[in-house]
């Protein structure tokens, strides 16, 4: 699985950090999401799919 | 087109079902995914009824929050200038620029760092409840103070002024208060925030308003805009969460098996899931999210024309059987995370991490510490906020 994050679209909702904390973090200055792992392991896959589905700004792109 | 037969919106709930969306809304939902309704001023915007279309359109850049555009479906005669109440009635890029000025304290890590302080606020208020007379109004003594204390601390607003900002907020989000009075309340809140911001120029604190003052001094923001953002955060920060606390407690008292899950469970995951389910089930923003189309949009077999209004009834979308099996059941163990109680798209609730954390602390503490908590009056005697833009109860007398 490959993950891409478009920080320009991010609205700092925190949904990705809540649902996939091993893969996403937030910047201190404005809460914009940061991608920690671009090619997460299989055991993270469900969390990442969940985060992408919940991202209100459609900023997370998952390629299986 | 003849619009005489269109359903009026908003609709009334059934008297015996204070926790469910209006029956008429269920009917519309079953008839069409998008349908026209008639508003108080005779305008006939689209009502979007289904979960899938709500998510698609709320995240569509051709759908605008700009209330200065013709066709925007106002909930009533009060017409706040889009530039006056923070960024909620603006579009990107200006919306994004202003929103990002205040996102930092709502990041998950920052909100988690506040959890012990919120736990203490909740515990202290429960100590006071237990030491005080009963029955007591849970709204006044608990549901309103918890989020008010928290947002005051975060913004740097003195809690001693809570009578002032709570009463003006109540006016502003009521549908029954006359326009002049609501406008006066808005001006009073705006003036109040302006004065606070001016005080923070000389005496800055470790709070969000002081950070806005720094933006004003750097020339990135006018004082009026900063005050508008302050008004938005202050109102949204306490009224919504307060209603979730009181209404959530009431529905749990009606469904003791569900309440028992929170009272007897230890698992933070269960508590977090319960909060999502209560947000879905109660969906307190019951007059719908308002937008206007910027271009012709083809969706679900209809064409929404540029300039037409759109209303997203998120209460009925949260009861969509395609998104949530057995949607009419309150089931704290279900996965309700896809709810749209915080909206969707770039305007999705800024305060959601804070609201979640506050509700997790409240729901996991109140029923454990007062296990015999009960309604002190009949359900029929509880005054529901049917006239509010945000649903809830005006009073909830409880005993134990
Ligand atoms: C359970 C409690 C809450 C609920 C149900 C709720 C619901 C919502 C909803 C539905 C929206 C979207 C409006 C739209 O798209 O037009 C929204 C936006 C917003 N909420 Fe909340 N909210 C809650 C708590 C809070 C708290 C605690 C704060 C602040 C501390 C807050 C601040 C905001 C702000 C600033 C916006 C505007 C965001 C934007 O336009 O970008 N909310 N909220
Ligand atoms: S879920 Fe989307 S909008 Fe929210 S913080 Fe993550 S990337 Fe940003």
From TrEMBL, chain A:
Transmembrane segments: none annotated. Its cofactor is [3Fe-4S] cluster. Gene3D superfamilies: 3.30.70.20. It comes from the Bacteria. Keywords: 3Fe-4S, Electron transport, Iron, Iron-sulfur, Metal-binding, Transport. Residues 1-29 form the 4Fe-4S ferredoxin-type domain. Ferredoxins are iron-sulfur proteins that transfer electrons in a wide variety of metabolic reactions. This is Ferredoxin. It comes from Actinoplanes regularis. The lineage of its organism: Bacteria, Bacillati, Actinomycetota, Actinomycetes, Micromonosporales.
UniProtKB/TrEMBL annotation, chain B:
GO terms for molecular function: heme binding; iron ion binding; monooxygenase activity; oxidoreductase activity, acting on paired donors, with incorporation or reduction of molecular oxygen. Keywords: Heme, Iron, Metal-binding, Monooxygenase, Oxidoreductase. InterPro entries: Cyt_P450, Cyt_P450_B, Cyt_P450_CS, Cyt_P450_sf. CDD domains: CYP105-like. GO terms for biological process: antibiotic biosynthetic process. Belongs to the cytochrome P450 family. PANTHER family: CYTOCHROME P450 YJIB-RELATED, P450, PUTATIVE (EUROFUNG)-RELATED. This is Cytochrome P450. It comes from Actinoplanes regularis. The lineage of its organism: Bacteria, Bacillati, Actinomycetota, Actinomycetes, Micromonosporales.
